[in-house]
Amino acid sequence: MAKPVIVSAVRTAIGRSFKGALVNVSSETLAINILTEAVRRSGVDPSEVDDVILAELNYGGGDLARHAAVASGMESVPGQAVNRHCAGSLTSIANAAAHIGAGAERVIVAGGVQSLSTSPLMKWRVPGSDPMEFKEPWMPPSHPETPDAPALDMSITVGWNTAKKAGISRQAMDEWALRSHQRAVAAADAGKFAEEILPLKITQADGSVIDFAADEHPRRDTTLERLASLPVLHPEIEGFSVTAGNSSGINDAAAAVTVTADDYAAANGLEVMATVRAWANVGVTPADNGIAAANVIGKILDRTGLSVGDVALWEINEAFASVPIAACRAHGIDEELVNFSGSGCSLGHPISASGARQVATLIYELRRRGGGIGVSAMCAGGGMGGALVIEV
Q1: Does the predicted TM-score (pTM) go above 0.85?
Q2: Of 40, 30, 33, whose CA–CA distance to 8 is shortest?
Q3: For residue 155, what is the DSSP state?
Q4: Which of 82, 199, 327, 341 is the most buried (most CB within 10 A)?
Q5: Known catalytic residue at 328
Q6: Half-sphere exposure (CA, 13 Å, Cβ side) for 198?
Q7: C-alpha–C-alpha distance, residues 50 and 72, integer Å
């Protein structure tokens, strides 16, 4: 049976939604750019690509993967849209690996795209009402809402519930967020992101063109004192400890990898960057949403027979700082090996692209360190979690 391997990995820099460099860049444009570059870097002839799988969230169902394939001149390549909320692009890569491993396809580009800045606003007809009576703007709920798990307020459903369940203090979350910013800034200063980022030329509203190649969200001047001074998001809830500072950003970006079979890569002289060893997903009670990251790590370690000590580096998405802290405590993971170049609190969380971003960052860092096993894990809206194991 063929082994699924990654022969290219790339992402855009991450913009701040509604006010950053990507504010006027559509999801379609991001998808076209990331697909084209993933194929170019792989060395695969575009005519050899069998499929494109891109995660998208609350986009409206246009199938960005197919749109990008056609716009990139790959009209014979179909496209698949994936939605698993935050873990969407991890699932895209897993789907690609499954097709490759089964021998069904030879080359698939997989990843995700998120442009909150240009996402459409939806409206919903109220059942039983006049056909013209709508609720708008409207967002489809990720799960059946309960008092302890609001469907549209993840600061409670994910951040606060996780902090309470795992006994995580406000100070611990602020300290984690501070380190996230420090690591992201240090990585950028060291040029670590240069390999993984595709620079984009962005036309501004006034017609000028700028080069966009650096993540906008990390704050160089963040201090523990500044983080501690931020108001909590729900002061009416006693003891509430989640703030904008120990939460992820609201962001735009795209990321993708090219997955192929090991024998195909060998036959075509392609450089193998990583092998996809395993993937897993879990569901939990929505009120335990943030704990899903810890749960899926347990599942994938059991599935692969790996121990925590076998893993060289971890990416555990900082949807809220409480999430990776809880996962580390649950499994005894060394925090020094987690989010080594920052994560959601600092780099930002472009929802559908975050998983593929994590995988790209893992690959390049493991290559710099001489190889090893990496695990990318995250919780996902609706009470889900996803994880992927790679080896470099």
Answers
A1: yes
A2: 40
A3: I
A4: 327
A5: no
A6: 26
A7: 14
